[in-house]
Amino acid sequence: MSIRPGVFLPLPHSIRVRVTLTVAAVSVLVAAVIATGLCLLIRHRIESEVFKETRRVATEWIGLMESGQIPPPSPTARVPLVQLVDSRGRVTMAGPMAGDRPLSTVRPTEENRFQDVTECPESERCVMLTAGRVPSLQAWELWRGEPHFVYAGTDQPPALRGHRLEFLVGSGGALLAALWTWTTWRAAGRILRPINAIRQRMSEITANDLSLRVPQPSGRDEIAQLARAANQTLGRLEAAVTRQREFAAVVSHELKSPLTGLRTGLEEALLYPETEARQAIAKSLPAADRMQQIIDELLAFARLRNTPCSSEPVDLGALVRDEAAARTTGVPVHARTEPDVRVLGNRVQLASIVTNLLVNAQRHATGQVDVSAERAGDQALVVVLDDGDGVDEEDRERIFEPFTRLEAGRRLDPGGSGLGLALCRAIAVAHEGSLCVEESPRGARFVLRLPLLTG
């Protein structure tokens, strides 16, 4: 048997089958309970109406029996069978349709003078009747105390004959259960159809093509939310993979230059044996140092992303003063700090942010670098300001991307890797803060924001 692609075949372990089977079992149970209760209610209602009428007819005839005379029976359309039977079971008086055989052998007592019974003779239809005993006083006056009995009855209604009522009500219950089951099957299929489409689309997505998205149904139900969440996850995954590929390409490019220089120096030493080994090694060391610098910064960048940092209370004011005092060469650095600017973080990593920002500011400044640490609401602010040319607005975000180096940076620091500012921002984000370049009347103004330590 061939199966067309995209056709959903329900399996025994599928949600649709399990839900349908569960509802079918529950619906059969509920239908059985309803059918049983309905049968008992209908049967009781019909029997009550019939016995009420037969008892009325029997009671009225007994009440008409007076001393010395017995009126003829008065059958009705609903109660056509009326008899008077003596204690030996002989019919002494009967209606035209009652016949000459007793309708029943039931003999009510003086304590319980009326009994409702259903008689079903062999090969004959059942009769529902009321057996009534003539009071002893009337029996004494009429028959010298011999007990006599009145039977008033009628043929059993067709609805109560055999199992017709049970069959009809059971058939209705079965149809109701089948309708519930069919409705559940259709509803479950309609609900699960978008999930099946999502599953099929997810199976088509591979690492080589993350641009596909799952079908997103309209509305705000759980399935629509699932599809939106899946598409958002796929979007983040595609962006992460794209960044990773771009990062790998940039790393390869950045490592290619020092590796080429190192290889060139080694090949030159092999081609020209007269070249001294120490001279060849000395010429290759700068390329090796640059490769080591790039690799160290890459390891720090990856470790920061994948490993949580240990935290401790850090006084940013004291840290900024220490780092500013350590900058004894180059453009002078002026520090201004407020007391008790405390944050929760890794002291070494936060110090590396301040150091990188100060080194970068000194590289681009012409006469002075200002650094400050202060409180601003529930945040701690570290501001590094230089008096250089500043950063163009369109480049203020780009400089935080890995391996991004502007023309001024390449000119002032030819050996840089372009990972310093990217690493600084990654550390700030890991500390639930931010690092950005803001407007300033002169130079570049780098602002680090971190949550203040409270309590």
TrEMBL record:
Q: Which reaction does it catalyse?
A: ATP + protein L-histidine = ADP + protein N-phospho-L-histidine
Keywords for the protein's UniProt record, in alphabetical order: Kinase, Membrane, Phosphoprotein, Transferase, Transmembrane, Transmembrane helix, Two-component regulatory system
Q: Which InterPro entries match?
A: HAMP_dom, HATPase_C_sf, HATPase_dom, His_kinase_dom, HisK_dim/P_dom, HisK_dim/P_sf, Sig_transdc_His_kin-like_C, TCS_sensor_his_kinase
Could you list the residue ranges that cross the membrane? 20-42, 167-185
Q: Name one Pfam family in it.
A: HisKA
- The HAMP domain sits at 189-242
Principal place where this protein is found?
A: membrane
List its EC numbers: 2.7.13.3
Q: Which PROSITE patterns match?
A: HAMP (PS50885), HIS_KIN (PS50109)
Location comes to: Cell membrane
Q: Which residues form the Histidine kinase domain?
A: 250-454
Q: Which Gene3D superfamilies does this chain map to?
A: 1.10.287.130, HAMP domain in histidine kinase (1.10.8.500), Histidine kinase-like ATPase, C-terminal domain (3.30.565.10)
- The source's domain of life comes to Bacteria
> What name does this protein carry?
histidine kinase
State the species of origin: Microbispora siamensis
